[in-house]
Amino acid sequence: MGKLVAPQRWTEQQAKSWRKKTGWLVGCNFTPSNAINQLEFWQAETFSPEVIDRELGWAAELGFNSVRVFLHNLLWEQDAAGFYKRFDRFLTIAHKHGIGVMPVLFDSCWDPNPALGKQREPKPGVHNSGWVQAPGVAVMKNPESFLPLRGYVEGVIGRFRNDRRIQIWDLWNEPDNLNVNSYGSADVDKSAIVVPFLIKTFAWVRNARPSQPLTGGVWLGDWGSDDLLSPTNWFLLNASDVISFHAYGDAKNLRARIKSLDRFDRPKLCTEYLARGIGSTFKAILPVLKKAGIGAYNWGFVKGKTQTHLPWDSWQKPYAADPPVWHHEILREDGTPYDARETKLIRKLTGA
Question: Quick check: pTM over 0.90?
Answer without folding.
Answer: yes
